[in-house]
């Protein structure tokens, strides 16, 4: 009632939460031995249900939590719903971490964006398909940067990402893999537009990916290829960290989108990027614009 003192729940009832005005009955004649019970587990049910299950007071038997719900504790009479638009991969979930966002991640700015597997940086769901299309403005090409890919590796190749010109399997392919990659890679798309598909068909999942891309003026094609095809770009841990640090990677994408601004940007970037990275890029950019 909101008045002190608070009353203990009587035998045959319980209350797991603070500040309530009533107690929850055990149901169907079930009893608890003592007053003040805080969980259904104190009710004398015919069996104690494991995590991922709940005690059905109508049938007096354990039932599995349906998809979209979970139960982390033993001996409970309900399953907890997944928050928002999330869903579990299977029935019998035991943790809120089993609730996954199945929406395909995408962010797109003026000249660069990011593609993410569903639920990233959490584990992606099973049995999901994502399709993205990148169509740059006229006279612009596409550069894709893959910091890392985390898949469930196996002989069956259940999870896969494909990048090619169009949906047709016969169209020009720029990238395809069904295995994890720890080392970063950057490449220019072989076609002027990209069709990207991610599929997960296995029973196990992994973290997936967050893949940035940038569009640049096709007049800079030779400069961009000179940069991304240089093995020194990926050869040191300091350089690899650039691809894994979102702030540095965003700065790199801005430079690639408008390479002419690099010479103005380089004074500031000396405090951000490793000296070896600046030493690698500067002569390439200067040589290109002095031609």
Question: What does it look like?
Answer:
- The chain is an alpha+beta fold.
- The protein has a domain at 106-289: Jelly Rolls (Sandwich), CATH 2.60.120.290.
- Helices cover 18% and strands 26% of the residues.
- The strands form six sheets. Strands 9, 10, 12, 13, 16 and 18 form a six-stranded antiparallel sheet that branches.
- Strand 9 and strand 10 (112-116) form a beta hairpin.
- Helix 4 (262-269) runs antiparallel to helix 5 (275-290).
- It is elongated.
- It starts with 12 loop residues before the first strand and ends with a helix.
* Poorly predicted runs: none
CATH architecture of the domain at 106-289: Sandwich
Overall body shape: elongated
Strand tally is 18
Structural class: alpha+beta
Number of helices: 5
Arithmetic mean pLDDT: 88
Radius of gyration: 27 Å
CATH superfamily of the domain at 106-289: Spermadhesin, CUB domain
InterPro entries: CUB_dom, SCUB_EGF-like_domain, Sperma_CUB_dom_sf, Tyr-kin_ephrin_A/B_rcpt-like
GO cellular component, one term: cell surface
Organism: Elysia chlorotica
Domain CUB: 104-216
């Amino acid at each position: 009632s909101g008045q002190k003192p608070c009353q203990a729940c009587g035998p045959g009832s319980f209350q797991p939460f603070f500040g309530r005005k009533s107690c929850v009955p055990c149901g169907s004649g079930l009893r608890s031995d003592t007053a003040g019970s805080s969980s259904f587990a104190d009710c004398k049910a015919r069996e104690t249900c494991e995590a991922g299950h709940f005690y059905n007071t109508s049938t007096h038997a354990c039932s599995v939590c349906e998809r979209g719900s979970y139960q982390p504790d033993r001996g409970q009479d309900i399953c907890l719903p997944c928050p928002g638009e999330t869903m579990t991969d299977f029935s019998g979930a035991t943790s809120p971490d089993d609730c996954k966002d199945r929406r395909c991640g995408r962010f797109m700015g003026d000249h660069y964006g990011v593609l993410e597997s569903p639920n990233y940086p959490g584990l992606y769901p099973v049995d999901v398909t994502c399709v993205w299309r990148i169509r740059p403005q006229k006279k612009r090409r596409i550069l894709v940067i893959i910091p890392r890919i985390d898949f469930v590796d196996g002989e069956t190749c259940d999870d896969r990402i494909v990048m090619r010109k169009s949906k047709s399997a016969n169209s020009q392919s720029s990238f395809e893999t069904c295995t994890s990659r720890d080392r970063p890679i950057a490449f220019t798309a072989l076609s002027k537009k990209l069709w990207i598909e991610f599929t997960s068909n296995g029973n196990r999942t992994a973290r997936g990916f967050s893949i940035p891309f940038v569009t640049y003026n096709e007049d800079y094609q030779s400069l961009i290829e000179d940069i991304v095809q240089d093995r020194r770009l990926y050869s040191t841990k300091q350089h690899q960290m650039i691809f894994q640090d979102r702030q540095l990677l965003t700065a790199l994408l801005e430079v690639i989108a408008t390479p002419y601004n690099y010479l103005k940007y380089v004074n500031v970037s000396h405090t951000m990027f490793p000296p070896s990275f600046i030493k690698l890029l500067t002569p390439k950019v200067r040589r290109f614009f002095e031609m």
